Amino acid sequence: MATYAVPTLPLHPPRTNFISSFNFPLHYNSLVSKTIRTTIPTQKWRNSRRKTTISAQERKVSSSPNKKSSEKGFDPAGFLTKHGITDKGFAQFLRERYKSIKDLKEQFFPRFANVMELSSGYELMGIHRNVQHRLDYMEWAPGARYCAVVGDFNGWSNTEHSAGKGHFGHDDFGYWFVILQDKVKEGQVPDELYFQQYNYADDYDKGDSGVTIEELFKKMNEEYWEPGEDRFLNKRFEVPAKLYEQMFGPNGPQTEEELGEIPDAETRYREWKEKHKDDPPSNLPPCDVIDSGKEYDVFNIVDDPVWLEKFRAKQPPIDYWLELRKGRKAWSEKYNPSIPHGSRYRVYFNTPSGPVERVPAWATYVLPEVEGKQSVAVHWEPPPEEAYRWKNERPKVPKSLRIYECHVGISGSEPKVASFSEFTEKVLLHVKESGYNAIQLIGVIEHKDYFTVGYRVTNLFAVSSRFGTPDDFKRLVDEAHGLGMLVFLDIVHSYSAADEMVGLSLFDGSNDCYFHTGKRGHHKYWGTRMFKYGDLDVLHYLLSNLKWWVEEYQVDGFHFHSLSSMMYTHNGFAAFTGDMEEYYNQYVDKDALIYLILANEMLHELNPNIITIAEDATFYPGLCEPTSEGGLGFDFYDNITVSEMWLSLLENVPDHEWSMNKVVKTLLGNGQNTNKMLIYAENHNQSISGGRSFGEILFGGTKEPSSGSENMLLRGSSLYKMIKLITFTISGRAYLNFMGNEFGHPMRVEFPMPSNDFSFSLANRQWDLVKDKGVHQDIFSFDKDMMKLDERMFSRSLPKIHHVNDTTMVISYIRGPFLFVFNFHPENSYERYSVGADEAGEYQLILDTDGVNYGGQGHLKDDQYLQRTMSNRIDGLRNCLEIMLPSRTAQVYKLTRILRV
């Protein structure tokens, strides 16, 4: 075994040679004004007539996880067995889709560590403050040849702030990078250290210790290095100089013969040890390298245990460098921001089709085209002491959702666009008083034209400037959380505005940057653009957008608008019969489905309490099934057929011809995941998309029907309350109401547009109707009391419907401790109507649509409020109640006392 001497050198690199990183993020790792009705299925999914059913043995095999292609506990087609779906073609489609997801993840792993990092693009994209007194701008434009940032700050010059060439300006994926240095104030000297950092946001009022770099280096060297430990660091040529002098100096050998044979390393080491055996003890660490004699270079180091423990206790001198960080006030004394807060800007591209200016795709505040001027982005960077600070935590997710859908712009009474601040001050308290536990906002994300309601989105990361600033919206969300309400956003990722100057269309001069080319890139009827969901960078953009709203604005969930537009290449405009093949044929966009799966997985990993709601007119199988079982992963789905049914009955069918069986069947949906169904009697679609609200239909579009319309008033009020009550109580755990419908708003919504001479007369809400005594106040009182049924009712199982009679037009069902009875007959009243009851006991009337306090006629007397069951077997139940049931009324009874027979 040979032993070799090793020079004693410092084991830590000198902090005086520290070079800070350049922070050059070339990339993460490599650097609806028109509505057209759609025919939708109204029954359970059917297996394709052209497919043979699977045998019991095959079904058993298909229901078990595929060990070769599936992860542990993951079955790509697991939900099919649960719902009794036996279509082989659909099961094969689900497995192929799962394989495509795995292949996609393998594609982005070289660039992104995981899906969560893929969804964090907003951390680098757009404009961001760099701690080294500058702003960094990053944009994805693979079709561009040149990129610059232009705006008020540089006189709209397209040469002053541009990206460099090659990898100094953009990477191989088309991500452009522009540095915008802060401007030194007159009379000030720039920082000599290019890595000088400032506290801009965190601890912005701290810093400025006054320690110079020279003093810091001296302090670091004295306190960090042991005496003599940095000898060879400060005199790096001492050892080679002595060795050279010994071998080739004037006293050294002059010829090869005089040089003689050089002893081996072990001999030289022993000679060195013998020569220095009497040296005084040194504080330097003793290190002897012992060669084990093996061919490969593995050495055992014999060292001093005391010194080793001391070495391990040493900490890198990072804290010294923090002393150099200066506060924002120090930066303000020396620099002006390269782009001031509130400054307008755009991005300039030189493309194969010529130069273009665009609103940045990741802009967080945008002024849309106003008075003929081109849209611009606004740099939003308020001083930290003025930026909004969150006060309230997110509320806990309730057992059931009572969602209040609203549009900020029409939330005021005056003929103008209302603001976030006005909504916060005037509407939030009303929503809380009304008994709702969540609000769903539509039209919040920036869009070019106000009359499009917010569905032709142009800037997915920007809060609409029509309503206020980003901080105004943060305050709205914060105040809603303080009132115990969740906040959902209506998100439009199913299509995008076709505008070129403000939207993403032809963003970098090419037609295939964010969207498909040709017919597939355009919506068949709406004139909007369709995203290219199979492109990794488009996924990067859309997934980051979802995470942005959750992280930056603390929203609690999303309502995904018009999924059928993106899931099918025909945009959902086809006659769906319920045949299973319609859900996996050539018209299904697998890439869009994969995006929805990734979106749900990312959001629920980010925050398990996030709520996602799917609006899909085709009832795609597996919407609310876990992604681990082959589903899309949504928490709830819209049953849009309910509102269409009520609208059709009110407008086209005489009252006495209403089918109770059809009503109940529609309210229960297609029988799949009923407890995850979001249901509503009417939402904004009826009134915003050119139709009439129920209040306008039932009350004739006036604030208060005249005295001569007493029958119309009574009919409208009775039906309105009954429709609300049965819709709210018969189905799942989620109910939605559009703003104003809780008191029967008498007018539709019509946004200002050329066809109405840009009038605001119908673009508001008549809140005074709630205060004035009359039918609208009565409906509001009923709606508030109806909301109070929620907690105990929805905490139990789904309703047991035991009585549906088309002749008497009576419906009755039990849910939790409540018994519901409806008489939709327009003329017939029943003195003693028998309905089944599950439990024997006493039932107390707690809600009566005919109550005088709700504007009814009050047919029931006080002695009829308490009912006791009889032992007659009715509706398949052992007990029954005989109750008085006036026409067009509904009653809710609560079991207050159980009688043991």
Structural features, described:
The chain is of the alpha/beta class. The chain has 26 helices and 33 strands. The strands form 8 sheets. An 8-stranded parallel β-barrel has the order 16-17-20-21-22-23-24-25. Strands 4, 12, 13, 14, 15, 18 and 19 form a 7-stranded mixed sheet that branches. It has a 6-stranded antiparallel sheet with strand order 26-27-28-33-30-31, covered by helices on one side. Helix 13 packs parallel to helix 15 (470-482), helix 16 (536-553) packs parallel to helix 18 (590-606) and helix 23 (710-729) packs parallel to helix 25. Mean pLDDT is 84; it is low at 1-44 and 46-70.
Q: In angstroms, what separates the terminal alpha carbons?
A: 97 Å
Number-wise, the strands total 33
What portion of residues is helical? 25-40%
Structural category: alpha/beta
Main beta-sheet annotation: 8 strands, parallel, barrel
**Rg on CA atoms, Å:** 36 Å
Number of helices: 26
- The pLDDT mean sits at 84
Short description:
With 901 residues, the chain is of the alpha/beta class. It is built from 26 helices and 33 strands.
Question: Notable features of this structure?
Answer:
901 residues; alpha/beta; eight-stranded parallel β-barrel; seven-stranded mixed beta sheet; 26 helices; disordered N terminus
Topology:
Blueprint: E1 3-5, H1 56-63, H2 78-82, H3 88-108, H4 115-118, E2 126-130, E3 134-140, E4 146-151, E5 175-181, E6 183-184, E7 198-199, H5 213-224, H6 231-234, H7 238-248, H8 256-259, H9 265-275, E8 287-291, E9 299-303, H10 305-312, H11 318-322, E10 326-327, H12 328-334, E11 335-336, E12 344-351, E13 354-358, E14 365-367, E15 376-378, E16 401-407, H13 420-426, H14 428-434, E17 438-442, E18 445-447, E19 457-464, H15 470-482, E20 486-491, H16 536-553, E21 557-560, H17 563-567, H18 590-606, E22 611-614, E23 636-638, H19 641-652, H20 660-667, E24 677-679, H21 684-688, H22 694-699, H23 710-729, E25 734-738, H24 768-771, H25 775-787, H26 790-794, E26 800-805, E27 810-815, E28 818-823, E29 830-837, E30 841-848, E31 866-868, E32 879-885, E33 889-898
Parallel strand pairs: 7-10, 14-19, 16-17, 16-25, 17-20, 20-21, 21-22, 22-23, 23-24, 24-25
Antiparallel strand pairs: 1-8, 2-3, 3-5, 4-12, 6-11, 8-9, 12-13, 12-15, 14-15, 18-19, 26-27, 27-28, 28-33, 29-32, 30-31, 30-33
Helix pairs in contact: 13-15, 16-18, 23-25
